[in-house]
Amino acid sequence: MMTGSFPMNGGYGTYSYAKNSQYQREASNVVKEMINKAITEKFDVKNKIATSRTIRIADLGCSVGPNTFIAMQNVIAVVEKKYYSQVLPSEKLEFQVFFNDHISNDFNTLFTSLPVDRQYFVTGVPGSFYELLFPSSSLHFVHSAYALHWLSKVPEKLLDKNSPAWNKGKIHYIGASDEVRNAYAAQFEKDMENFLNARSKEIIAGGMMVLIMVGLLDDFQPSETSTGVTFNFLESSLMDMVNGGLINGAQVDLFNFPIYVACPKEMTMLI
Ligand SMILES: C[S@@+](CC[C@H](N)C(=O)[O-])C[C@H]1O[C@@H](n2cnc3c(N)ncnc32)[C@H](O)[C@@H]1O
C-alpha cells in the first residue's frame, strides 16, 4: 500500500473505533488540564477573536466519536468560561465545529451520534489534513488528537528492491535498518511541513492549535515501547504465516505500517 487513507473501523460493531477508543479517550483526559490551562492563559477570546462572536473550531482526524465530541465540548466550555469572565452574558458567543477526517471515514456514524444537547453548529470536512482544508484566516482554534502519527503514505523507498531502505520481511521501522527508519523520518518531516504550512494559512492571527500526539521520550528506542512490542509480535506472526505457506513473503514485503512516532526533540526542530 503506497498512498491512501487509513480510517478507523466505522459503525458500532465489536471492532468499531466507537467501541475501541477508550485508550485514546483516557490519554486525552490525562492532558485535559494542560489544554485548559493553555486556553485560559493564551487564547485571546475577547480582543482578537470575538469580533463576530462566532468561534470556529476544527478537530482534525476526528474519526467517528465519541472522543471528538468530548474534546470539542471541553474546548468550548473552557473558551466560554474565559469569555464570560470578561464580557456580559448578553453578548453571547456562537460556536461552529468542523469535524475533519479522510473522505473514507464513517461520517454517517459521526453525524448520527452527535450529542443531542450540543450547543454548536456542525460541519463535516472530508479530506487530508496534510492539505489545505479551510479558507485563509478562517479558524480560531484547531485541535487534533492521536492522528498525526499517521503518515500520508508509506515511503516509496521501502518497496524498492534496489533501495538500501527496502523493508524485506518487515512491516515497520522498528527493528529495521537505519535506512528504513530514516525514510520514515523523512516522510514524517515532509508531512509535518505540509500540515503546519496549511494550518498557518487557515488559522487567524491570535488563534490557537492544540496537538495531542503519540510520542516517544527523547533518547528512547521505539522497540522499548508497547507499540514496538505489538508491531514485533505482529511481524513475527506474519512471518510464521509465510513459513507455514498461508501467505507469501512478497505480501509481507509490500505491507508497511504508515505510522511514525516522533520524540519532543524532533517535533521542536520541525516546528
Ligand atoms: C486514532 S484516530 C483518532 C480519533 C480521535 N481524534 C480520537 O482522539 O479518538 C486517528 C484518525 O485520524 C485520521 N487521519 C489520519 N490521517 C489523516 C489525514 N491525513 N487527514 C485526515 N484525517 C486523518 C484517521 O482516519 C483516524 O480517524
TrEMBL record:
<dbReference type="InterPro" id="IPR005299">
    <property type="entry name" value="MeTrfase_7"/>
</dbReference>
<protein>
    <recommendedName>
        <fullName>S-adenosylmethionine-dependent methyltransferase</fullName>
    </recommendedName>
</protein>
<dbReference type="Pfam" id="PF03492">
    <property type="entry name" value="Methyltransf_7"/>
</dbReference>
<comment type="similarity">
    <text>Belongs to the methyltransferase superfamily. Type-7 methyltransferase family.</text>
</comment>
<dbReference type="InterPro" id="IPR029063">
    <property type="entry name" value="SAM-dependent_MTases_sf"/>
</dbReference>
